[in-house]
Every structure is written in C-alpha cells, then in structure tokens.
C-alpha cells in the first residue's frame, strides 16, 4: 500500500526539470549528460532549438544563451547553465507585471490614499 505522502513518479520527473516556473523538459537531462567545461556557443549549437517553457510563453535556448555568445561564457557544470537560463529568460518568466502581494499601490500608480509622514 502506497503512502499518501509518496509523490507520484510522473510529478517528480516534472518537478526535477521545472524550477521557479521555468520548464526545461528533456533539455535538463541533456545538460546533465553534457561534457563540461563548455561554452555558450557550444550549447547553442547543440541545443539551440530546444524550447524553454515559461509561465507566459516560451523561449528557445538560442534566444537565451545566445546572449552570451559575444563573450562566449564558459560553464563548468549543468547547474551553472540552469542558473544562467534563470537569469536570462525574458519577461515571459515573470508573473503579472507590477504585482505585489504586499498591498498598497506601486509608485507608478500614485493614488489619493498615499500615506503621509509627519
């Protein structure tokens, strides 16, 4: 009898390739098995057409890591590549624009109920 707290095998695989709303899919496994050190140019050449799923759309690896091609950034392991992808994905990876769960209005909204300090 399986425990209710035991995760479903399918959801575990999804969780491993998804982080902070960014879904790498089979690219995650390919990055793990890739030979390191490597460069952004090499990664773009090999995986450039892979789609990175984001909450607001998707981007190809070429669009993301291609930003490093001029410097030809070197990566020592898959974790560095994943971190670079997280740092470079566009606004599609972000939730609602200007959303804050802290209440009040944003500085751009202004508003008549602004707090005053005396």
Residue fraction in strands: 5-15%
Q: What's the tally of helices?
A: 5
How do the strands line up in the largest sheet?
A: 1-2
Tally of DSSP β-strands: 6
Shape: elongated
Major sheet size, sense and barrel closure? 2 strands, antiparallel
Pairing-aware structural class of the strands and helices?
A: alpha+beta
Oligomer category: single chain
Q: Uncertain spans, ≥5 residues at pLDDT below 50? A: 1-18
Structure description:
The chain is an alpha+beta fold and 118 residues long. The chain has a domain at 26-93. The protein contains 5 helices and 6 strands. It has helices spanning 9-17, 26-33, 40-47, 61-65, 78-88; strands spanning 18-19, 22-23, 38-39, 51-54, 57-60, 74-75. Strands 1-2 form a two-stranded antiparallel ribbon. The protein has a two-stranded antiparallel sheet with strand order 3-6. Strands 4-5 form a two-stranded antiparallel ribbon. A hairpin with a 2-residue loop joins strand 4 and strand 5.
């Amino acid at each position: 009898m399986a425990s209710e707290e035991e995760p479903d095998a399918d959801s575990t695989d999804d969780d491993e390739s998804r982080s902070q709303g960014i879904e790498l899919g089979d690219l995650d496994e390919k990055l793990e098995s890739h030979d390191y050190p490597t460069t952004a140019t090499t990664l773009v050449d090999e995986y450039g057409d892979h789609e990175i799923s984001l909450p607001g759309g998707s981007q190809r690896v070429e669009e993301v890591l291609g930003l490093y091609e001029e410097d030809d950034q070197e990566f020592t392991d898959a974790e560095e590549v994943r971190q670079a992808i997280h740092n470079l994905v566009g606004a599609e990876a972000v939730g609602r624009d200007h959303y804050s769960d802290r209440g009040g209005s944003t500085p751009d909204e202004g508003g008549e109920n602004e707090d005053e300090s005396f």
